[in-house]
Amino acid sequence: MEQATPAPAVVPKAAATLILVRDGAAGPEVLMLKRHGLSDVLGEAHVFPGGKVDAGDISDQALALMEESPDVLRQRLAEPACDDRTAAALFVAAIREAVEEASILMALNASAAQCETALARLRGGTPFVKVLEDLRITLATSQLVPWSRWITPNRPEQQRKRFDARFFVARAPADAAALHDGHETTEAVWMNARQALERNWAREISLAPPQIMTLVHLARHADVEGILADARSRSPYLIEPHVVDAPEGLRLCYPGDPLHPVRERVMPGPLRFVFRDKRFEPLGGFEAFFT
Prior knowledge:
Elements: E1 13-24, E2 27-35, E3 46-47, E4 50-52, H1 60-63, H2 70-77, H3 84-102, E5 107-108, H4 112-123, H5 128-135, E6 138-139, E7 145-151, E8 163-171, E9 185-192, H6 193-201, H7 209-218, H8 224-232, E10 237-239, E11 242-246, E12 249-253, E13 272-276, E14 279-282
Parallel strand pairs: 1-8, 7-10
Antiparallel strand pairs: 1-2, 1-4, 2-3, 2-9, 5-6, 7-8, 11-12, 12-13, 13-14
Helix pairs in contact: 2-3, 4-5, 6-7
């Protein structure tokens, strides 16, 4: 009997995510967007603004619009194997996705009128880089701090898309009014990190594992300054979840778990999730998020 040929590995696509935070009455709040139900990636889940890097992000025109030079951005990304242009494009993509999906523009010294004009033109279909060039807007890359890097598990038999996503964190502009785009996203809401986890546990919203683990980390901080200080004090941690098929269901293991190839813990929170009733949850119940 011939053995089945293993499915080829799906090459992950470069992507960028922007975790926008602000101080709230009950602690720091994070912007969450609900993905459209027809989306082929995380449909109906609540996520941070983000998406794959496109050709415009890596263009010479885009790189000329940044506050910092590509080599500085590469150093801040702290990935020795990443070249200057790719590193810079990740910062551009994170800012662009926040504009396209939530109407929040991380711009340097741009007036309210300029930002409003930029948003109006973007909604009208003008390319992101063209809008910035015409309005002479500089991207505030220094306000983005690298937070983490997530690579989708290699499960070619179960997925068509993989992403190599860099997560950045930034304080939202004081006058930012988040608006979902009505196309990729259908809701924009600011939530305390623990509140978001509680709503996911109550099945009021749906969260994917990278969002869950990021919220677990954010929930440890009392204010935005503490979050940013945390990010600045370390290199972004790399997470390549390890999937294990168990009799009780699929398990997702993180660095530090005995079943993960990387034995050293790199982030706070549970080391293992079980997929139960269409939800990822820690084995020890809700409070295991915070132990």
